[in-house]
Amino acid sequence: MADFHEVGKTGEAVAAEFLRFHGFTILFLNWRHGRYELDLVALDRQYLVFIEVKTRSFRGIVYPEDAVTSSKQQKLYVAAKHYLEVNEFDGPIRFDVVSVHFLPHGKRLFYHPDAFFPLG
After folding, report:
1. How much is the pTM?
2. What single DSSP character describes residue 104?
3. Per-residue pLDDT tens digits for 11-29
4. The CATH number, out of the four listed (3.40.1350.10, 1.20.1250.20, 3.30.1700.10, 3.20.20.100), of the domain defined by the range 4-115
5. Residue 7 and residue 56: Cα distance in Å, rounded?
6. Rounded to 5 degrees, what angle do the CA atoms 102, 63, 61 make?
7. Ranges assigned E (strand) in 57-105
Protein backbone atom coordinates (compact mmCIF):
# COMPACT_ATOMS: atom_id res chain seq x y z
CA MET A 1 0.00 0.00 0.00
CA ALA A 2 1.23 3.46 -0.83
CA ASP A 3 0.15 6.37 1.35
CA PHE A 4 -2.31 6.81 4.21
CA HIS A 5 -5.00 8.36 1.97
CA GLU A 6 -4.76 5.55 -0.58
CA VAL A 7 -4.97 2.91 2.17
CA GLY A 8 -8.13 4.55 3.51
CA LYS A 9 -9.80 4.74 0.08
CA THR A 10 -8.93 1.11 -0.61
CA GLY A 11 -10.37 0.10 2.76
CA GLU A 12 -13.60 1.97 2.02
CA ALA A 13 -13.92 0.17 -1.32
CA VAL A 14 -13.36 -3.20 0.38
CA ALA A 15 -15.96 -2.34 3.03
CA ALA A 16 -18.51 -1.26 0.40
CA GLU A 17 -17.97 -4.51 -1.52
CA PHE A 18 -18.46 -6.53 1.68
CA LEU A 19 -21.66 -4.67 2.57
CA ARG A 20 -23.09 -5.03 -0.96
CA PHE A 21 -22.41 -8.76 -0.77
CA HIS A 22 -24.42 -8.84 2.47
CA GLY A 23 -27.43 -7.09 0.94
CA PHE A 24 -26.75 -3.44 1.66
CA THR A 25 -27.53 -0.80 -0.93
CA ILE A 26 -24.70 1.73 -0.94
CA LEU A 27 -26.13 5.22 -1.39
CA PHE A 28 -22.96 7.28 -0.98
CA LEU A 29 -19.24 6.74 -0.72
CA ASN A 30 -17.60 9.71 1.04
CA TRP A 31 -20.66 11.90 1.41
CA ARG A 32 -19.60 15.46 2.17
CA HIS A 33 -21.39 18.55 3.34
CA GLY A 34 -19.05 21.41 4.14
CA ARG A 35 -16.52 20.08 6.62
CA TYR A 36 -18.62 17.05 7.48
CA GLU A 37 -17.97 13.63 5.94
CA LEU A 38 -19.48 10.18 6.15
CA ASP A 39 -17.43 7.29 4.77
CA LEU A 40 -20.41 5.22 3.62
CA VAL A 41 -24.16 5.75 3.70
CA ALA A 42 -26.24 2.68 2.96
CA LEU A 43 -29.64 1.05 3.30
CA ASP A 44 -29.95 -2.21 5.22
CA ARG A 45 -33.58 -3.27 4.99
CA GLN A 46 -35.49 -0.43 6.67
CA TYR A 47 -32.39 1.12 8.27
CA LEU A 48 -30.38 4.04 6.98
CA VAL A 49 -26.85 3.16 8.06
CA PHE A 50 -23.95 5.55 8.54
CA ILE A 51 -20.77 3.50 8.32
CA GLU A 52 -17.37 4.58 9.56
CA VAL A 53 -14.52 2.67 7.93
CA LYS A 54 -11.16 2.41 9.66
CA THR A 55 -8.25 0.89 7.77
CA ARG A 56 -4.71 -0.02 8.75
CA SER A 57 -1.92 -1.47 6.66
CA PHE A 58 0.13 -2.72 9.58
CA ARG A 59 -0.40 -5.02 12.50
CA GLY A 60 -0.36 -2.97 15.65
CA ILE A 61 -1.58 -3.31 19.19
CA VAL A 62 -4.49 -0.96 18.55
CA TYR A 63 -7.36 -2.14 16.38
CA PRO A 64 -8.59 0.30 13.72
CA GLU A 65 -12.08 0.42 15.25
CA ASP A 66 -10.57 1.74 18.48
CA ALA A 67 -10.00 5.01 16.60
CA VAL A 68 -13.76 5.63 16.68
CA THR A 69 -13.56 7.57 19.93
CA SER A 70 -16.47 9.35 21.60
CA SER A 71 -15.24 12.58 19.98
CA LYS A 72 -15.28 10.92 16.55
CA GLN A 73 -18.74 9.50 17.28
CA GLN A 74 -20.05 12.99 18.00
CA LYS A 75 -18.60 14.27 14.71
CA LEU A 76 -20.28 11.41 12.86
CA TYR A 77 -23.56 12.20 14.60
CA VAL A 78 -23.37 15.84 13.49
CA ALA A 79 -22.52 14.75 9.93
CA ALA A 80 -25.49 12.35 9.99
CA LYS A 81 -27.79 15.17 11.16
CA HIS A 82 -26.62 17.26 8.20
CA TYR A 83 -27.19 14.30 5.88
CA LEU A 84 -30.76 13.96 7.16
CA GLU A 85 -31.38 17.68 6.67
CA VAL A 86 -30.33 17.42 3.02
CA ASN A 87 -31.75 13.98 2.19
CA GLU A 88 -35.24 12.88 3.13
CA PHE A 89 -35.47 9.74 5.20
CA ASP A 90 -38.19 8.82 7.65
CA GLY A 91 -37.08 5.62 9.29
CA PRO A 92 -34.64 4.17 11.78
CA ILE A 93 -30.94 4.92 11.55
CA ARG A 94 -27.88 3.28 12.98
CA PHE A 95 -24.12 3.71 13.10
CA ASP A 96 -21.90 0.80 12.07
CA VAL A 97 -18.12 0.45 11.98
CA VAL A 98 -16.08 -1.62 9.55
CA SER A 99 -12.39 -2.14 10.20
CA VAL A 100 -10.11 -3.37 7.47
CA HIS A 101 -6.65 -4.75 8.24
CA PHE A 102 -4.27 -5.13 5.30
CA LEU A 103 -1.77 -7.78 6.31
CA PRO A 104 1.32 -9.08 4.48
CA HIS A 105 -0.64 -12.11 3.25
CA GLY A 106 -4.12 -10.72 2.66
CA LYS A 107 -6.72 -8.72 4.50
CA ARG A 108 -9.11 -9.12 7.42
CA LEU A 109 -12.37 -7.28 7.78
CA PHE A 110 -14.37 -6.88 10.98
CA TYR A 111 -17.93 -5.62 10.87
CA HIS A 112 -19.52 -4.01 13.92
CA PRO A 113 -23.25 -3.39 13.35
CA ASP A 114 -24.98 -0.88 15.60
CA ALA A 115 -21.55 -0.01 16.99
CA PHE A 116 -22.61 3.17 18.76
CA PHE A 117 -25.29 5.80 19.03
CA PRO A 118 -23.86 9.13 20.03
CA LEU A 119 -25.94 11.35 22.23
CA GLY A 120 -26.96 14.56 20.50
Report:
1. 0.90
2. T
3. 999 999 999 999 999 999 9
4. 3.40.1350.10
5. 7
6. 95
7. 93-103
